[in-house]
Amino acid sequence: MITKTHFGTLEAGKEVYYYTMKNAAGMSVKICEFGGAIMELRVPDKYGRFADVVGGFDCLRDYVLSPGYIGALVGRTANRIKRGKYKVDGKEYSAYCNNGKNSLHGGKVGYSHRVWDVKAVDGDEPKLILTLHSPDGEEGYPGNVDVKVTYALLSSNALSIHYEAVTDQRTVINLTNHAYFNLGGYASGKIFDHILQIEADRYVVTDEELIPTGVLRSVEGTPFDFREPKPIGRDFEADDQDLKIAGGYDHCFCFTGGETKEPVLRVAAYEQNTGRFMQVFTNQPCIQLYSGNFLDNPEHPLKGGYPQTKQSLFCLETQKMPDAPNHAGFNDITLNPGEKYDYTTIYQFSVK
Ligand code: BGC
Predict the structure, then answer these.
(1) Ligand 1 centre from 290 Cα, in Å?
(2) Is residue 111 within 8 Å of residue 36, measured between CB atoms?
(3) What is the CATH number of the domain that holds 17?
(4) Which domain holds residue 90?
(5) d(CA 173, CA 141)
(6) How far apart are CA 59 and CA 208, in angstroms?
(7) Total domain count for the chain?
(8) Quick check: helix, strand or coil at residue 82?
């Protein structure tokens, strides 16, 4: 079932709506036209009690103004590009620098801050098809890019996100979703006791500005080894330079073996008190684990007035490596005319 609700009005006068999808099992998800953001995601615990497991806001204004990209679709390129500079076919481009000296999540007005067109397709497995036209030169990116993101709520209690894009000129693209999870409920406190498993054998080392140095470090013997399940907090205070620089986890984990043709199981998160279990299937080569280290914006409280608090939510952003065009050996994020950018990530919920 899908319903459409008025959410607010942007300064320019544009009315913004959100859509609520619900399946027969009672799982529901709210998606906003602004940023294509996942605003709410309600899933049952082991006793059948539903809770909202993602961060979000009550007011449109907070989606517009709060830093954090809460729940949003991020593009044209996820994460940071050093000084905004990169080359396509030897020609240098400058993406808008909105994060100190660097460009973050697509620049000043990335896809996270645009209003998407939404088409609702109701049924047992309701779908929302979001589209966006990103014109040539937008935020310093070449090529007219047409993006299509399909959110589907599956009967099995999964949220599937299918990302597609085409371009009329060689360009770069790296899309993701920036949902912040806490499987105990978004207002249930710190994330440290979540048991996390990530099938990644390397991660991207970053400098003081969280820009990749070019080094892909083996997780072996480091706090970044999540190949066996462990609490997120277990090694959080470890004496590790990379963790300290970022103030926690804020790193791109490279899945063992890289990109796959079809989505495969790569990540699992488990919250012991509620029994909620989330598995992430994707065909992307990497995931950014962000432990919400910058979540402290008191002027933008979350739903119900709950404060944004560091490490009370975490993101699992499937993507390719950040700053990729600037490092030999990183993923190729170029898209050519005639090709299709085509990735799927599925967040599957159950209980244990
Ligand atoms: C990045 C963080 C950044 C955050 C913004 C994450 O994807 O890894 O460094 O602060 O997005 O909300």
Answers:
(1) 7
(2) yes
(3) 2.70.98.10
(4) 2-351
(5) 9
(6) 33
(7) 1
(8) helix
- Expressed in percent and rounded to 5, the helix, strand and coil fractions of the chain are 10, 45, 50
pLDDT of amino acid 125: 98
Determine the longest span between alpha carbons in the chain, in angstroms: 58
**CA separation for the pair 32, 47 (Å, rounded):** 29
Percent of the chain with pLDDT over 90: 100
Cα–Cα distance measured from residue 211 to residue 244, given in angstroms and rounded to the nearest whole number: 14
Q: Which two tokens stand for residue 331?
A: 């993923």
Closest CA to 132 of 108, 96, 164, 179: 164
What's the 1 CA to ligand 1 centre distance in angstroms? 33
Active-site positions read 178, 317
Cis, bond preceding 76 (omega within 30 deg of 0): yes
Dihedral (Cα; 178, 294, 193, 302), 10-degree rounding: -70
How far is Cα 322 from Cα 325, in angstroms, rounded to an integer?
Answer: 9
CA atoms within 13 Å, Cβ hemisphere of 64: 12
Q: Closest residue (by CA) to atom 9 of ligand 1?
A: 250
The whole model's pTM is what? 0.98
Tokens of 150: 């399909």
Specify the pLDDT at position 10.
98
Nearest-atom number in ligand 1 for the CA of 317 is: 7
Residue 22 has φ and ψ, to the nearest 5°, of -135, 140
Tens digits of per-residue pLDDT, 7-57?
999 999 999 999 999 999 999 999 999 999 999 999 999 999 999 999 999
Average pLDDT, the chain: 98
* Residue at token pair 């082991």: 46
